Amino acid sequence: DQDTLVNPTNHSYFNLSGDFTQTVDRHVFQLNTEGIYPIAPDGVPAKAPDANRDVVKHIYNGALLKDIFAEEDEQIQLVSGLDHPFALPAGHDNAGFLYDQGSGRFLLFKTEA
Predict the structure, then answer these.
(1) Molecular function (GO) terms listed (predicted)?
(2) Of 42, 37, 47, 109, which is closest to residue 55 (Cα–Cα)?
(3) How far apart are CA 87 and CA 6, in angstroms?
(4) What's the pTM?
């Protein structure tokens, strides 16, 4: 038995504005993350998360998606955004949220992992 990284993503996209002619740039994204798993150019993630990147701090504190996507971090630039696994703290069911200030819509991320 050993811990195994699993990233069961289906690449869902959410536009909480209700106006699909608008981008998600003004959505606030927050994740209670302990680090991002850097990925290689072929998309394979590293074995250990990196907590020392500015982008991790910005996501932990909550940031506009447009600001995250504009980060000069090579990991953000590599995939033109976020396509990474994140390390979440054990025993913390509220993983984070996505919020659109204009509509007031709020999407809460929860986990039992």
Answers:
(1) carbohydrate binding; isomerase activity
(2) 37
(3) 11
(4) 0.84
Digitized pLDDT (tens) for each residue of the chain, 113 residues in all: 666 655 556 667 789 999 999 999 999 999 999 999 999 999 899 999 999 999 999 999 999 999 999 999 999 999 888 889 999 988 878 899 999 999 999 999 888 76
| Site of tokens 């909480």 | 16
> Which residue, among 92, 85, 90, has the nearest Cα to 110 in the 3D structure?
92
Per-residue tokens: 66: 């447009």
The set of residues, in sequence order, having a beta carbon less than 8 Å from that of 2 and lying 6+ positions away, is: none
The β-bridge partners of 30 are: 97
Q: Which CA distances in Å does 111 have to 27, 40, 105?
A: 21, 26, 20
Backbone angles phi, psi at 97, to 5 degrees: -160, 165
